Amino acid sequence: MTASATAERTPAAPETSGAARGTMRGRTIVRGLPLLPAVVLLLIFLAGPIIYCIYYAFTDMQLTGATTTNFVGLANFRKAFGDDQFYNAILQTLIFTVLSAIVGQNLLGLAIALLFRLATKVLRSIVGALVIAAWVVPEIVAGYLMYAFFRDEGSLNEILKFLHLPQQNWLYTLPILAVSLANVWRGTAFSMLVYSAALAEVPAELTEAAAMDGAGVWQRFWHVTLPTIRRSVATNLMLITLQTLSVFGLIFAMTKGGPSNKSTTLPIYTYQTALQNYEIGYGTAMALVLLVIGALFSLVYLRALRPEAD
Fold first, then answer.
1. pLDDT digit string (tens) for 82-114?
2. 12, 23, 49, 105 - which has most CB atoms within 10 Å?
3. Which spans does this entry mark as compositional bias, Low complexity (predicted)?
4. pLDDT at 13 exceeding the cut of 60
């Protein structure tokens, strides 16, 4: 009797399992419906323009003067990689990104966040407000402020004159350094906020145990604090690198890429090519190269975020 009942029930099991899977699939679809508007917006405003730009990069589209647009294959990319100004723009972009983001904003933001843990509440509030104030200033306004600071008759040379130190025209002799320092001033607040939040999550018992074992301040930072906040470091580096690669208004307001292309980064050169020389197709091809550079930086940082690296 029991064996017979079991034999009768056994074939029904796959039907029950299939029904359960169908129910779960239906629930998954229902739960995903609220995300549908966001997905549609991303497709329209993010994926759509990117696909459109990829198409234009393979054409000879002109802003004015041409009645037709023709497919030219890789001609724009061959022209770019045979253009000395294009290589100069890549070099200036990498110098600007390394100086202002990877070294400047990242290390200064970490240093300020570490010092905040030792400072009084009043001092933290004052310094934090000053740093964040530079971050909330619009990019073009920050550019004009930094132009007034670094120009030949600007505030920096007045300070150096008061200290009896040599002065120079920073925007003419060292333009890429001037715009890099300006970007450090403007963007350090973001790194400071990221690292302040990360340092607050470091377990106190770990640093106390390391101190009891005789570890100094530097050893505690290097062997305890830094490994604990490793993911925050990688995330911060990825975000500030991508943001810095696309900086345009700050550099354009301070130097317009000059003098003699000494501060012409890829966004500046792309603007000059596409909108001043009217070569939309060629300019779009260079913008795609900038997109690839950002993707390469992202891959490096995502590698550091992988769980296998723990």
1. 999 999 999 999 999 999 999 999 999 999 999
2. 105
3. 1-17
4. no
Looking at residue 307, its pLDDT comes to 67
* CA quadruple 42, 44, 46, 49: dihedral, nearest 10: 170
Token pair for 69: 């647009």
Average of per-residue pLDDT across 64-89: 90
Give residue 120's pLDDT: 83
The pLDDT, as a whole number, for residue 85 is 94
Tell me the C-alpha to C-alpha distance, in Å, between residue 108 and each of 100, 127, 175, 244, 259.
Answer: 10, 13, 21, 15, 28
How many C-beta atoms surround the C-beta of residue 209 within 10 A? 13
For 147-177, write each residue's pLDDT tens digit: 999 998 899 999 999 999 998 899 999 999 9
Residues 6+ apart with CB under 8 A from 273: 279, 282, 283, 286
> Is the Cα dihedral 299, 304, 305, 306 positive or negative?
positive
What is the Cα–Cα distance from 177 to 184, expressed in whole angstroms?
10
Q: Measuring CA to CA, which residue among 110, 61, 95 is closest to residue 247?
A: 95
C-alpha 245/C-alpha 251 separation (Å) is 12
Domains located in the chain, CATH noted: 35-78 (no CATH), 84-305 (1.10.3720.10)
Peptide bond into 138 cis (omega under 30): no
Question: What are the C-alpha distances in Å from 85 to residues 82, 88, 92, 152?
Answer: 9, 5, 10, 27
Q: What does pTM read for this prediction?
A: 0.83
Contact call for residues 254 and 147 (beta carbons, < 8 A):
yes
* Residue 117 CB burial class (10 angstroms; 0-12, 13-18, ≥19): exposed
Measure the CA–CA gap between 273 and 267, rounded to whole angstroms. Answer: 10
Portion of the chain with pLDDT greater than 70, in percent: 93
H helix or E strand, kind and range, residue 149: helix 139-150
Q: What is the CA radius of gyration of the chain?
A: 27
